[in-house]
Amino acid sequence: MNIRDQLLPRLRQYLPQLVLFGAVWIAMAIAVPAFTGEAAVFSTLSQLPLVGLVALGVAITMIAGELDLSVASMAALCGVLAIRLADLGLIAALGVVTVIGGVYGCLQGYLIARLRINSMVLTVASLILLQGISWLASGGGSIQLTQFGLSDPLLARWGVLSPSILVAVVVFAAIGVYMSVSRWGREIYAVGGARNEAFAAGVPRLRPLIHAFAISGACAGLAGGLVSLRAASATPDAFSSLLLAAVAAVLVGGVSLYGGRGTVVNVVLGVLIVSTLSASLAISGQPTYVAQLLTGLLLLVVMAFEFTVKRLGATKPKVSRQPKTLVPAS
Amino acid sequence: MTVISRAPEVPSPATAVFRRVGPNLAVVGLVTLVLAVAAITTDGFFTTDNARAILLSASIVGVVAVAMTPITLSGNLVSLAVQQMTILATIMYLAMARDGMHWLAALAAVVVAMVVVGVLQGAVVALGMNPIVTTLAAGAIIFGVLASYTNGRAVTATGPLLAFVAEGSLFGIPVAVYAFLLFTLLAQFYVTGTVLGRQTLLVGSNREVARNSGLPIATIIISAFVVLALGTALAGLLTAGQIGQATPSDLGGLTFDVIAAILVGGTAIQGGEGSPLRSAFGAIVIACFNNIMVLNGLSIGPRLTFTGVLVAAVVLLLHVTRKGTR
Predict the structure, then answer these.
(1) What is the distance in angstroms between the Cα of A58 and the nearest Cα belonging to chain B?
(2) B chain contacts of residue A208, beta-carbon cutoff 8 Å
(3) Which of A223, A288, A303, B269 could form a disulfide with A53 if both were Cys (CB 3.0 to 4.6 A apart)?
(4) Interval A27-66: pLDDT, tens
């Protein structure tokens, strides 16, 4: 099989998201004249370390047929912890918070897989718990970095790239390879697509979910650490609209809410679409609630569109829990 | 969010009784423990003033938690838009009171508007779209509209109804507490005493069977969202009375406080099991818990942490006991 035969179906698979991305980019470039060139690309990519990484983690749990709602709290907690641990040095602080996120994720994944508890229930409890711990860790308010020099490496910029963006790109690539090539990644798809069949076929019961939630926790931890170390400050109640942005990015990108379908490329496209919207609105000086409003609308429209297409039976039949229609699936 | 439908099973009478009682015992045990610790360690917990304070602080979260329970019972998980809906009702009422509208007309307008918002969300969910995503998006949209309306300024107003809600009391108990109790009884009657309410439980416990039996699923789901809309209208009015001014980002933790109350009350998140009464109970338990921590001088950090631990403990305990009796 030559490379063209492989690439073309791939391109077709991502066509709706690519078209949507192009449309949003062109629309925002026309509506916001200042949204052009390097500045536009850089401000869009700047969302990758926060919204992108968190969306990536949410997407992996969604592919596993679960949903991690605790990511924003985890990011806030690790943001506070990164500032507290700044004495260790930049790399070490980021490493430690990533590990903390990952270990907590492991624990969540283990409980969900072992007890077969609904993941949203457990992660909502986590959300409250982690919020409390970040208040505790911050000592009850916003905290600042004492050695400002520490965040200097993160403030570097090379054209449209920055260290944080590069870190995010590397993580995206690594998780992409993990999900598509490794056996463990395939197991996550298997338990998300058809859980009982996967177990019957010999997929281990614990490993896929532990991996999925560990990835989600670690990504959220890294994201929180990167953002707070770059800003040299952290607040325990930060990132209140992060969950919306992340879930919107994942779903707009085309990852299935019902598990088993979607790739890292879907997440990248979704993040780019949502980031284009928020970055261009920020450049035009609109308050952040406008971006929230439009993200919410976009999410509803995309979901309604996909839903309608599915109901009309225009797409390939797939496993779904939607109500049966009178139109037979083609 | 894999929803695995359980195979039908016929439990023996003894198992059935234990399955009903067991999880309740677990929660009641935990609550007794909390109250016992409170009684021993906290001065001034068992006073009428403090009981009133607990009920008052539980009232807004309680009303919304009770109102959201039918959605959870119907198998549609939770609404992530309740903070935005409540503050929408608050700001609408305050804005109309500020502009001199008669309180009765303003109240009617708020109720009608909230019901419209609720029916819209319910209709989308009834079509089969995911409730979490729908309400997350709806919340963002409501917040955006509210923020562009208020333009960053707080909406302030006074009026006869607001004064009554804020200061009125009967036998020394504030109006908000009566509103909470009355609303809980009405919602409980809706779930246990009306056909739609009973059908809500059926849809939640097995949607396929409910559909095959010809239950009006769309009507049931939309009605559940209307109950939530009425609850947020009431909670919005109580908020308007208690704080007198509002911005769109007020009541920040409401959504997750409400979910916590429902979970602690023991309503099963996957639907079909639970009641508004239990959610009211959950809200009061969390309020007691918070009250004890405030009386012991804990700041927000430890309070949130312990609340998170309580919710996680109850959730795990209920899950394990329910599974153990299966």
Answers:
(1) 12
(2) none
(3) A223
(4) 888 888 888 888 888 888 888 889 999 999 999 999 998 8
